[in-house]
Amino acid sequence: MNKNTPRMGSYLFPILIVLMLFSFFGDYFSPYTEISVDQLVSKIEKGEVKEITSKGREVKLKLSNDTLVKSNLPREFQDTFYDNYLKDRVEKGQIKYTGLTESNGMALSTIIPSLITLVGVGFLFYILISKSANAGNQASQFAKNRAKLNLDKNNHVKFKDVAGLKEEKEEMYELVDFLRNPKKYIDQGARIPKGVLLMGQPGTGKTYLSKAVAGEAEVPFYSISGSDFVEMYVGVGASRVRDMFTEAKKNAPCIIFIDEIDAVGRKRGSGLGGGHDEREQTLNQLLVEMDGFSKNEGIIIIAATNRPDILDPALLRPGRFDRTIQIGMPDVREREEILQVHTRNKKLASDVNLANIAKATSGFSPAELENLTNEAALLAARYRKENITSDLIEEAAIKVMAGPEKKSAAVIERERKLTAYHEAGHAVTAEFLPELDPVHIITIVPRGNAGGFTAYIPEEDKSFRTRNEMKNRIVSLLGGRAAEELILDDISTGASNDIERATQIARSMVKTYGFSDKLGPILYNDGSGNMFLGGNEYSSGDHYSEQTAVLIDSEVTSIIKDSYDRAKEILSNHKDFLEELAQLLLKQETIRKAEYDEIAKKYSVKENISSEIEEI
Question: In terms of domains, do 352 and 422 share one?
């Protein structure tokens, strides 16, 4: 049936009802006034009639004053009516007469309403049958899988388009090669991996790498999201899993990609409803289909998640997901390759050095790098630049991290002064502490929720942090608050975010990394947490005694207090440096790296004063 039939019915059905009403009750809405036969004869004899229409027993008249009347003749009066009253007047042209025979009149008056009724009932019955058939089809389709079969020959995403991830691409290419040339692997006694789990932070390229697999594979490629399995009705998700694998077996060898598998693969026993929980039933069915009694030869499952910690252990074991590929943040070389990919279709100025940009974007994910290049292109279009310059890329990087500038925001002069000394305090403390990243830019122009900020650019990528480095980072974070107290003899709420970050680092040092000599290398933060807030267990209590909790708080407080005292000491010893930076910020609002380095050269080089910091 045409899918537009129900829509047509919604328009035609009211029209049909109106026609049927008029066919049955047309006389009720008629403009003709009913008169008796005596009145009819009287008006004819008085010459008040201009037109007469006779249809069987019914006679309709149009009077000289254009009034419309009608009358029904008795059967015995019907046959002689025309000869006795109308014939002479019609022949003389006094009355215009239109007459229909009784049979024709009766046929039209009887057949037309019946025909309209018959057609209307038939059409209504057709619509009802069509809707019931659609409802049946929808009910049967509700439990069908929603995996999309990728047969797009124009999929241009290939492995060469995925910058970086060299080892990861080799692992994925081996799967594609196994499906293309299985003989060389079978000859070695190797079996095809059943599943590959891609793990990594958001934006690291898990889904993009899977698209490249789809572009390289010359086999059917099914893609589906983990949330597509889960419904409010118990059993629907399991039915969709069965249907998906049944469909895949018909097209084997093939690849099934499940994005965000944590939506359906969460640890069992951490939810409510027990074994009748819809999500758990769906997971159970997925486990059986991946490695149960029945074999799924030639079907490879590729899944992606950024929450591997909450996945069920049965899902992660070999035989289901034979390979686990960790996709981390790109290093400086990979960031340069990613920038090259995303700037291929962009007009770059001659002063743009992608290698320098890659060094300055440490910690950026591939998605953030793509967003950076796009923001730079948007800025170039906004300012009507022919090319994307290095200044625009730097502005785009700051915009991605901190938000757009709010130059039009009304700022009180006292707040500008406080912000200037606050940001200068961050820079000065960082300058005289070893192992910290160098200052790249200082600004008091409001961005986002911040009145200003100090940005640091790491000189090299680091895979871990030392205890002294984390201590020095806390000192630098508290440098803004220390500068406020030292220079302005007051403190403000502007340091709230600094305090929050410093406290998080201090707690991590004590509870996670075992940097406390009093507590030792013991993990006090197991990350289980409340199951309703993303944890794994029902209990949200800490797994240590109250005495230990008091000691933890004491150690964290000691770290923060010592760091704050150290920040005030550094600023007191270099008050001239602090004052010059703050005054320059008040004058021009932004200090970039080159200008900052010139000012810093006038003062002492970095002192290794952090080595004297007392151990925790």
Answer: no
What does the pLDDT read at residue 614? 43
Contact partners, residue 344, CB within 8 Å, separation at least 6: none
Instruction: Give the Cβ contact number of residue 432 at 10 Å.
Output: 26
CATH assignment of the domain containing 570: 1.20.58.760
**Which CATH number characterizes residue 211's domain?**
3.40.50.300
Same domain, 97 and 210: no
Instruction: Flag whether 138 is in a domain.
Output: no
Do 256 and 360 lie in one domain? The reply is: no
Residue 222 near residue 184, CB atoms below 8 Å: no
For residue 256, which phi and psi values (nearest 5 degrees)? -115, 125
For 125-153, the three-class secondary structure string (H helix, E strand, C coil) is HHHHHHHHHHHHHHHHHHCCCCCEEECCC
Long-range Cβ contacts of 525-529 (<8 Å, 24+ apart) = 527/309
Which neighbouring-strand residues pair with 439?
456
Report percent pLDDT > 70 for the chain.
76
Is position 423 annotated as part of the catalytic site? yes
Q: Annotated catalytic residue: which of 337, 423, 431, 555?
A: 423
* Model pLDDT, residue 515: 93
CB 100 within 8 A of CB 56: yes
| Helical (H) or strand (E) element with 97 | strand 96-100
The overall average pLDDT reported for the chain is 79
Number of domains the chain is built from: 4
Residues 492 and 604 in one domain: yes
- Measure the CA–CA gap between 117 and 109, rounded to whole angstroms: 13
Question: Phi and psi at residue 51, in whole multiples of 5°?
Answer: -140, 145
Q: Which of 76, 136, 72 minimizes the C-alpha distance to 105?
A: 72
DSSP letter string, 192-215: --SEEEEEESTTSSHHHHHHHHHH
How far is 233 from 145, CA to CA, in rounded Å? Answer: 15
Helices (H) and strands (E) in the chain, counts: 22, 14
User: For the residues of 305-349, what is the DSSP string, one character each?
Assistant: ES-GGGB-HHHHSTTTS-EEEEE----HHHHHHHHHHHTTTS-B-
Q: What tokens were used for 292?
A: 């149960």
CA separation for the pair 420, 453 (Å, rounded): 10
**Which pair of structure tokens corresponds to residue 511?**
């509870």
Query: In terms of domains, do 445 and 382 share one?
Result: no
Q: Supply the pLDDT for residue 274.
A: 46
Residues 6 or more apart whose CB falls under 8 angstroms from that of 591 comprise 441, 442, 443, 581, 584, 585, 599
**Measured distance between the N- and C-terminal CA atoms of the chain, rounded to whole angstroms:** 78
Lowest-pLDDT range of 198-212, 294-308, 399-413, 585-599: 399-413
Closest CA to 431 of 392, 375, 483, 386: 483
For residue 253, say if its preceding peptide bond is cis, omega within 30 degrees of 0: yes
Can you give the CATH number for the domain in which 384 is found? 1.10.8.60
Indicate the pTM of the whole model: 0.67
Could you give the CA distance from residue 288 to residue 281 in angstroms, rounded to a whole number? 11
Look up the domain containing 226 and give its range.
Answer: 148-327
pLDDT at residue 470 is higher than 70: yes
pLDDT of residue 607: 46
pLDDT in tens, 265-296: 888 775 544 445 677 888 888 888 888 666 66
The better pLDDT of the pair 162, 418 is held by: 418
Task: Report if residue 134 sits inside a domain.
Answer: no
